[in-house]
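[step 3/7] fold_predict: job queued, chain A
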Amino acid sequence: MNEQALFEQAKVCLDQGDYENAIALLERCIEDDPEELTYYWYLGLAYLLQENEELAQEIWLSIFLQGSLEEVEQWTSELINFLEIKVQENIKEKKLGNAKVIYEAIFVINPDHENIELLNNLVEALSIFASNLSFNKEYETALDIYLEALNFNPNHAMSWHSLAFNYYHLENYSKAEESIRKAIELDYSSAQNHHVLGLILHKNENYSSAIKAYSKAIEIDNKLIDAHNNLGDIYLQQNQIDDAIAAYQTALDLASGSLKSPIFKKIADICELLGDKSFISFNLGYSAYFDSKNKEAIPFFEDFLKSHPMAIDVYLALGRCYLMTNQTISAINLVEKAYNLFPNKLDNLVFSRLNQSILPILYKDIKEIKFYRKRFSQRLEELIEKMNLYPVTNKKSSLKIIETGTNYYLGFQGENDLQIQQKYANHIHISLLKIYPQWCQSIDLPQPINQRKIRIGYVSTRLYGLGRLYLACLKYRDKSKFETFVYDISGDDESVKNEKIIFRENFKNHSDYMRFIPRNIDDICPLIIADNLDILVLPEIGLDTIMGHLSCLRLAPIQCTTWAHPMTSGSPNIDYFLSSDLMEPANAEEHYSEKLVRLPNLGFSIQPPNLRDFDKKRSDFQLRENSVVYLCCQSLLKYLPQHDYIFPSITQQNKLAQFVFFDSFLGSVITDDFKKRIDKIFTQFNLNYEDYCTFLKTLVFDDYLIVHQLSDIFLDSFGWSGGVTTLDTIACGLPIVTCPGKMMRSRQSDGMLRMIGVTETIAKTETEYIEIAVRLGLDKEWRQVIRDKMRANKHLLFDDRECIKGLECFFEEALQKQSKIELISGDSAK
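[step 4/7] structure written:
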């Protein structure tokens, strides 16, 4: 082996933690070329990481003793630069123990060393790591990491804040208070710091001081939901009922989604104290409703309507509960009843919109799909006609109509939805044009674009979750060319759930500007407009009503969406659909109202999930030791009835099959309806589905990944394949059976498998899909071959830079094209 090959092998050993072999190889390199300083730098590093710091420093010092003063200065600079690079590399690879050791070694070489950016990167990485530990309730370990971070930088206010929170969870309130007061000293303007102080004082029953702390947090940030909520708790404890209700009501007004649920429950408790029985039902109904417990909400709402039959908002909520529990006929009947109860034009239009949006969550058979698809389209035509006959100019009323339903469930029918989506989006656009004409006009590019950075904005309700797909667009961007803005409009309080804080911090660290905006158009649009963007990316149109509405406005000269939600927006104000060249079929342009952009590879650069060591067994997750586990972890909505026969067909040929599904995120009613459907098809094959199908409760993410690693085969869904789920499956090295369809949303797994060169398990037909699934189950050797190939190639899928370059090239080309259009338009005007 030549000298260079020896050196490369030594670096591989070093990366793998094989320090003994690394040292032996480096010593051979030095024997061959004792003048090459790099070998000594690496040799010292190997000893350092082997926890022999003294010998590492001796090796480096031995070099310095051989040079002149000028040479020593140069060599010292080179060594420190080398070590700084290694700190950054180890931070990136999440080897924080190594990063700390190397960083500390730099100060032994030069006690006056200063690199603020490197220090901040290390402290932020330690803080994020500790936050992960804290989220998993490993508070003691998290404390040690935070203390290490503060040892490096005692002025890192966020670490003091997080340290206090960990002490709080460990019930060490004196240390918690000491830490949060240090955080306040460093960052007095942080509402979160005062809020945590309030929590600690509240726990210590120092109510008057806690009220002052919460009030200070609210003074700094009046939209801090938890501070209002906790203030209400103190008032209630002190029997100040009116003050408690006022605080809870403010929290309710600020909160959205699931954050409303516990607040409604507290108000229900107050109603019980006051003996107000009907409003107990009202508040308990909404508490269950916002907690996605629609089945539980229904009897409360029905009870409340007995005494308040004209409560239109409760009727609407009840209608949505029927829909979310797959009681489609009940929803239709409720609408028909409401038409008579609420005959005025506005109310009639609200219920017409609800009626138009009615679709089953799960279909019984393919006939039902065709029936409701036709009904959906017909009711949309009727709604548009009604809106034309009875135009509504009142802003609040117009918003109420268009917010009553969404098109989200349409995509699960597996058809080309272009025409329906366009018709629907145009309807929303026309409605918004009357309410917000100022935000529906074309916008010129800020000039001149060739003398400044390009300004790109990303607006999202799902930074936590789907944000995994597009974080790298910011992280790896060309910072000399692009300036980025992130708008978090999730509506979640900034303090909720550590895992969300971690994602927000990642986006904050990798963007130039991060905005946390309340979840309403009147707050969102002025802030985005004020930033003078060149391009606005709305990655996940279709998942939330607010995103659908924003897509029908014009907030930037160029607006794009992505396959984070793989359906056309239909909007006249979305110019481009940023997709994946590997996922799209040849005729893909026929599926989009936007101009299709086929970005390289997946179109997104994704970081792999962090796979932890585990000691759990199959039995911990109801998986049988002797079974062939077929993991079916897609949302139950993706499994269409015409494909149910796939499961018993596999079972007929492999009696050891165990199909593992996850309960529906929409609740037990949907899971039970799916079980009934599966039961029916297994019975037709003279099989009992309960012998072969297992349903797991929702798991924490680490356990979810463990189930992947304990399974044998991943069965992809037809019509709408895995996206993020497939990425996780590939990271776990689990063989995937997929069958690409005609739409991109059914070809995501296919594109990912082709990217890593594992095409053996891609079926062309349903029959071939069954054959591959059976063979993988019965042929252990072939299954292992596929698994080994996936593990060897999965790196090709992650951290891809080619698609980032492709995205940035598109941004530049789109702006150049837009500039020419504006120039021509301007000349024409003259």
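[step 5/7] annotate
Residues 494-498 have pLDDT under 50 and may be disordered.
The first strand starts at residue 454 and ends at 460.
exit 0
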